[in-house]
Amino acid sequence: MSDRFDYFVVFAEMRTGSNFLEANLNAFEGFKCYGEAFNPHFIAYPNYTEVLGIDQATRDADPQVLLKAVREDPEHLAGFRFFNDHDPRVLDEILNDPRCAKIILTRNPLDSFVSWKIAQATGQWKLTDVRKRRDSQISFDGQEFADHVARLQAFQVKLMNGLQKTGQTAFYVAYEDLQDLDVMNGLATFLGSDARLENLDSKLKRQNPSPISEKVSNIHDVSAALAALDRFNLNRTPNFEPRRGAAVPSYVATKGAGLLFMPMQGGPTTAVTDWMAKIAGGADRLLSNLNQRQLRDWKARHLPHRSFTVLRHPVARAHEVFCTRILSDGPGSYHKIRRTLRNRFELPIPEAMEGANYSKDDHRKAFQAFLTWLQANLNGQTAIRQDGHWVSQASVLEGFGGFQAPDHILREEDLVNSLPRLASEVGAGPHGFVERHASLPFDLADIYDADIEKRAQVTYARDYEAFGFKSWR
Questions:
Q1: DSSP letter (8 states) at residue 429
Q2: Is the overall model pTM greater than 0.90, yes or no?
Q3: Neighbours of 180 (CB within 10 A)
C-alpha cells in the first residue's frame, strides 16, 4: 500500500498501449488495475459483468459506488484506465483528488488512429499469438483524423489544467516507454512501492509493427491531411484575458414583459434600457441588481421570456470608452488611469478637458495611442486592470455562459429592426427604438482612418474573428 495515494488512474486512449501498461502494473505485488471500469458500454472488460461485487447497472445508477470500492480495495492499491469518452461524472473528482495517483499514457495520434481503424476493420483488439494476427489496410479519412486529434487535445488540456489548478503532478508515459523496464519500475516507485519487475509482460504482442505507408491504402491523403492540420494551434487568436463572471446584477429585466437585457459595458446600454422602459411602462418598472435566485424567479413568472445582449463594433466601442472614461472629467471617468496613461504611457491627452486646447488631429493621435495601449493591456502586459468597458466582447459573452448564455445576440446597427421584433416574440407592444449617443469631443467619423481600423483589428482580434466584424466604414 502507499502512504501517498489511495488509488490510481491511467489516463489513456484506445490503441495507446494501455492494455500492456495494465498487464505490467498487475504484475507488481500489491497493484491491481480494473480495466476500463467506467467505460459506458461495459464494466472493466467486454466480457465482465461486475467489478468488486458491483455490476454495471449499479455503477451506471451511481458511479460513486464503484469509485469508492476501488479507493477502498482492502488488498491492493487499485486503479483503472480512463479514456476521454468514459463516464464524465467521476472525472472531476478523480482529477481533483490528490490521493489519486495520475498516470498519463500518450502515443503519436496518427499511429494510434491508424491502429484503431485497423482494429475496427479486423475485429482484433488484443494479440497474444502472432500466428493469429489479422492484417488489413485502411482508407485514411482526413476529417475523421482531425476530429480525433481535436478530442484528444481537448482531453489533454483538461487534464493539464486540472493538475495545475490543484498543484498536482502526474507520471507521464509515452508509448515508446512501455518497453523500458526501468520506466515501469520507476512507475512503481511513483506509486509508493519498493517492488521491482525483472521482466516485462510477454503475453501481449504488438499488432501492427509495419510503417504507416504499408497500413494505409491512400498514403498521399495522409500527407495532405497532416499538412492542413494545425497540430500546434498556430493560427489561434491568443487570449490573455482572465475569465469573467456572469455579472447577473448588471442584467436589466422588465416587469410584466419577458425581456431580459444582458448589457456589455461600453455598449449602447442607455438607449436599450430607455426602450425597455417604454415597453415596461416606465423606468420604475425595470428590475436590476438581481441575484441568481431572483432572476430564476423572474423567469418563472414571465413566460415567454427572451434574454439578449448587444454587440457594438470594436472601433466604436473603444472610441466611446476612450471619450467617456479616459478623456471625460465627469462622473464615471477614470481619473487615475488617465493620469497613468499620460505620465507612464505618454498618451497625448490633456490633464483636464475643460479649457484644453485639444484639436481633432490631437484626438486622432490620442485615440491611436489608446488602441495601442489597449493591445498591451488585454495581453496582460500592463499593471492597469483589464476593465469591463474595454475587454473583448467575446470574453464578456463567455462570462454570461457561466450562468446562462443569452437567447439573442443583437448588433447595434440593427437594433431599430431587431428590438421591435424581439418584443413581439414576448407579446409586448410595438415600441420603436431610438438611438442615443454620448456627448463626445469628436465623433468617430471625424477621425477614423485605415490606421485606426488596423490597430483595432489587432487589439480586438478575438471579436473580429468571433463575430465577423468588417471595417467600421
A1: -
A2: no
A3: 13
